[in-house]
């Protein structure tokens, strides 16, 4: 091979080598961009801080291993799977702490079977889609009572939890019906104590949503359920998630996912498993 041929070959090899370097470098840049893109996608995932009840069995509670369990928790896991743009982070806590956490921004979302009431609606954003429907309010009392309507509770001692839906509804009822007013006793007690108060005659009645009352009658002896939807259309019959007022997109996304789960029958199966029947219809 002549000198000119040798240098031509060397030049070609140099070009090929340089091309290989350039191609390899571009390949590295492409991989890096993909990695950056993946990282950016991960960074775009919003962590949603969920304040959820820790003693509201069978809806949301801590099991024997101190692990979060219950209908609402299982539903939220399915909701989270449908929403890749969010990652739910749960903080089990007492009922009273959930609203405080929403007020202070510690929580983005509150979960504790919240019913609708006017005062809460002024402060918080309610989910458009309820997680379950409650079947309205009924009266709980010791066995053998003759309660059918609110009128039958005139002059009777009715225990309520402070600031709850029932206290607001009963206060409104008393204003509208002063001659049939019930005696409202404000006392925040655990379920076992409430039942003890009823069966031992300390108080005459306790008003609860049917979905809860069904569970109580199964769980506690000496307790009976009376009446049907005693507040009528004055009380909403849904259980809702609560959000901060400015979190409209989160509410919209969760409600849409929840609606899909209802339509797919997945929440209905969970309701039957945890609550004894399908309360999502």
TrEMBL record:
Keywords: Signal. Residues 1-24 form the signal peptide. SUPFAM superfamilies: Periplasmic binding protein-like II. The keyword Signal applies. Residues 47-278 form the Solute-binding protein family 3/N-terminal domain. PANTHER family: AMINO-ACID-BINDING PROTEIN YXEM-RELATED (PTHR35936:SF19), MEMBRANE-BOUND LYTIC MUREIN TRANSGLYCOSYLASE F (PTHR35936). This is Solute-binding protein family 3/N-terminal domain-containing protein.
């Amino acid at each position: 091979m002549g000198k000119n041929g040798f240098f031509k070959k060397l030049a070609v090899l140099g070009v090929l080598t340089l091309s290989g370097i350039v191609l390899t470098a571009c390949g590295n840049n492409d991989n890096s961009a993909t990695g950056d893109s993946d990282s950016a996608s991960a960074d775009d995932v919003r962590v949603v801080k969920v304040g959820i009840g820790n003693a509201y069995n069978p809806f949301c509670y801590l099991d024997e291993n101190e692990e979060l369990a219950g209908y609402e928790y299982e539903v939220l896991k399915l909701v989270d799977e449908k929403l890749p743009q969010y990652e739910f982070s749960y903080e089990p806590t007492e009922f009273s702490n959930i609203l405080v956490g929403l007020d202070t921004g510690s929580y983005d979302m509150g979960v504790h079977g919240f019913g609708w009431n006017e005062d809460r609606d002024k402060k918080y954003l309610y989910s458009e889609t309820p997680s379950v429907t409650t079947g309205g309010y009924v009266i709980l009392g010791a066995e053998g009572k003759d309660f059918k309507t609110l009128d039958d509770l005139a002059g009777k001692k009715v225990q309520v939890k402070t600031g709850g839906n029932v206290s607001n509804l009963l206060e409104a009822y008393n204003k509208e019906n002063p001659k049939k007013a019930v005696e409202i006793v404000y006392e925040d007690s655990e379920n076992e104590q409430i039942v003890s108060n009823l069966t031992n005659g300390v108080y005459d009645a306790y008003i609860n949503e049917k979905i809860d009352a069904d569970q109580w009658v199964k769980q506690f002896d000496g307790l009976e359920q009376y009446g049907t939807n005693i507040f009528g259309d004055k009380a909403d019959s849904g259980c809702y998630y609560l959000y901060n007022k400015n979190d409209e997109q989160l509410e919209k996304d969760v409600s849409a996912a929840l609606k899909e789960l209802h339509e797919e029958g997945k929440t209905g199966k969970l309701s039957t498993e945890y609550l004894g029947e399908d309360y999502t219809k």
